[in-house]
Amino acid sequence: MKFISTMNSRERVLCALAGKKPDRVPFAESNFDPYIARQMANSNHNLSELEITQLVSRDVLPFDATPPVFAEEQIGTDGQAFYTDPFLVDESALEQIKWPDPLSAPFREAAKDCIKQRGEYATIAVTRLGISPTYLSMGFENFVTSLIDRPFFVQEILRCYTEWLAPRFDYLQEIGFDVIWTFDDIAYKAGLFISPVMFRKLIIPLIKPLVKRIHSPWIFHSDGNVMQIVDDLLELGINGLHPFEPVAMDILKVKQKYGDRLCVVGNINVNTLTIGTAAEVEQEVQYLLENVAPMGGFMLTSSNSIPRFAKPENVWAMIQAWQRFSRD
After folding, report:
1. For the domain bounded by 9-325, which CATH number is listed?
2. Sign of the alpha-carbon dihedral angle for 294, 298, 303, 307
3. Most exposed of 72, 132, 274, 288 (fewest Cβ within 10 Å)?
4. In angstroms, how far is CA 296 from the centroid of its own chain?
5. What tens digit of pLDDT does each residue of 197-254 get?
6. What is the dihedral of CA 44, 46, 49, 54, to 10 degrees?
7. What is the pLDDT of residues 158-213, one digit of tens each?
């Protein structure tokens, strides 16, 4: 594959998402925990996404465009957010929901500000398709049993989400966001938490009208092993897949199988960033850049996100190794 040179960050990201090989591997980490970002910057205040991008030299400028979750949100002892007390337990609860305006003035202004600040960075709209907000708002046990007992209820909630998201997707692309990145976990490490048959029968028909509105390059995120539906996701139109949990999916084998049809986005092990050494982090970066990157269609990130409990020195080791090994 011909080597393309002299690109800015936006061109680099779009080149990789097209399955090609940019002048260097893009660093596309979309989620830095505010606490770890403060530590890395030696700062007492939370950093903006632009400040994080400038600090770590990443190629993307993310913007939070996620829909609401109708459940109580709490912060665990590790600093990570989680949901309890789901509200959408039955049909009557769904009828009582008051959905916020998807295109409220504050949202539109914040989105426009991101576009104004982007410079040569690739703007990333971080959002969802509605799958994970559905089960988070229902409660997971209620969700999985309802798939069998009352699938119409699951589908109705998901339909509400996709219809709510539709004008937001349109707006984000209209004002110039470069990439749509949807985060909807649908798998465990061993495989999907709903059968591929059920996913195709109950989920795909509901999200298809929404994804048809996506005209920008699109990255799909799910933790766990989604190999059973990669072909389905490609048919839906994804350009990139993230994050390839190392214990669940082999990023090299996936890249070898799908070639330039799929940009693979990942996958420095979060466990290594958390409990490993800087040398171990460097080895993982070097492996990806020497084995996956030469095929093109690759962007470097962690295997999920940069969490609060990561070691700052290990995150810096990842960045420094990327800068050292990412050029031909």
Report:
1. 3.20.20.210
2. positive
3. 72
4. 20
5. 999 999 999 999 999 999 999 999 999 999 999 999 999 999 999 999 999 999 999 9
6. 0
7. 999 999 999 999 999 999 999 999 999 999 999 999 999 999 999 999 999 999 99
Q: What is the pLDDT of residues 92-115, one digit of tens each?
A: 999 999 999 999 999 999 999 999
Chain position carrying tokens 């109705």: 156
* Assigned token pair, 6: 């002299």
149 — phi, psi (to 5°)? -80, -35
B/e letters for 253-287, b = 16+ CB within 10 Å, e = fewer, are: ebbeebeeebbbbbbbbbebbeebebebbbebbee
Where exactly are the structural domains of the chain?
A: 9-325
**Residue 292, amino acid:** V
Contact criterion met (CB below 8 Å) for 1 and 295? yes
- Peptide linkage before 267 cis (omega within 30 of 0): yes
Measure the CA–CA gap between 321 and 328, rounded to whole angstroms.
Answer: 14
Nearest to 315 by CA among 264, 270, 256: 270
pLDDT band at 74 (very low <50, low <70, confident <90, very high): confident
CA distance 193 to 149: 16
Q: Which two tokens stand for residue 270?
A: 């979060």
Outline where DSSP puts E strands in 93-234.
122-127, 179-183, 218-221
Please state whether the predicted TM-score (pTM) of the whole model is above 0.90: yes
Q: CA 20 to CA 263: how far, in whole Å?
A: 9
Asked if 65 and 172 count as a contact pair (C-beta separation under 8 A), the reply is yes
* Run of H or E including 300: strand 298-302
